[in-house]
Specification:
By secondary structure, the protein is an all-alpha fold. The protein contains three helices and no strands. The radius of gyration is 22 Å and the shape is elongated.
């Protein structure tokens, strides 16, 4: 079985191990949020806009998907 990256030693007391796991889990959260914000900002500035599925008419998109599946 693979151990998670930066996993605390199994010989630690369970209370301490739980704290270490919590720190490891929350350590990457700000980095993930920053990454998500950067991707969204890049898409808004450089991404392709005006694609049919980016509109607000969800029904037409769903209907076109159904029609496309019927042609297979």
């Amino acid at each position: 079985m693979l151990k998670p990256v930066n996993a605390p030693s199994p010989s630690l007391p369970s209370a301490m191990r739980d704290k270490v796991y919590a720190l490891i889990k929350n350590r990457n959260k700000p980095r993930l949020e920053l990454f998500a914000h950067r991707i969204i900002a890049w898409q808004q500035q450089h991404g392709r806009h005006g694609l049919p599925w980016q509109g607000a008419d969800v029904y037409r998109i769903w209907l076109s998907e159904i029609m496309l599946q019927q042609t297979k």
